[in-house]
Design a protein that fits this description.
Blueprint: H1 6-14, H2 22-33, E1 39-40, E2 51-53, E3 58-63, H3 83-106, E4 110-115, H4 116-121, H5 125-133
Parallel strand pairs: 3-4
Antiparallel strand pairs: 1-2, 2-3
Length: 134
């Protein structure tokens, strides 16, 4: 059972951002300091990738573990209210993510994802540098 009223829960959830999240800002500022220049939230591409590196034909998504159903402890957290709605939403998010990645690859883009938990643990940079340089 939810400890907040439906109105307060709705207000709280509506304030969660989809752009400029802490993990996203950390990833892009670190890469920028390293000299990697990118375009943010390119609308013409499937899924509106968080970071686009046009000269390299590479895109990077920075996903929140809960919202995109990652297999870590944050992504496995279960909602205690409106369970059916959230289960369907997370499944739809995962399907949409896979579909967008397929479309991007078909259009000649390389795609990588950085998860919120990887940013928190500092376990993303080496992999993404290899991705960008490869």
């Amino acid at each position: 059972m939810d400890r907040l009223t439906p109105d307060r829960r709705s207000r709280l959830m509506s304030r969660i951002r989809s752009k400029d999240t802490k993990p996203e800002v950390e990833v892009r500022s670190t890469l920028h300091r390293m000299g990697y220049r990118n375009v943010l939230h390119k609308r013409g591409l499937p899924g509106t990738p968080d970071l686009v590196f046009p000269a390299r034909r590479k895109v990077l998504f920075v996903h929140g573990c809960y919202w995109h159903g990652h297999t870590c402890k944050y992504g496995k957290a279960q909602s205690k209210s409106n369970v059916e709605f959230w289960h369907k939403k997370m499944d739809a998010n995962r399907r949409r993510d896979r579909r967008n990645a397929r479309k991007l690859r078909a259009a000649g883009w390389s795609v990588a994802t950085v998860w919120e938990c990887q940013v928190k643990q500092g376990k993303w940079l080496d992999r993404i540098v290899l991705f960008l340089e490869g």
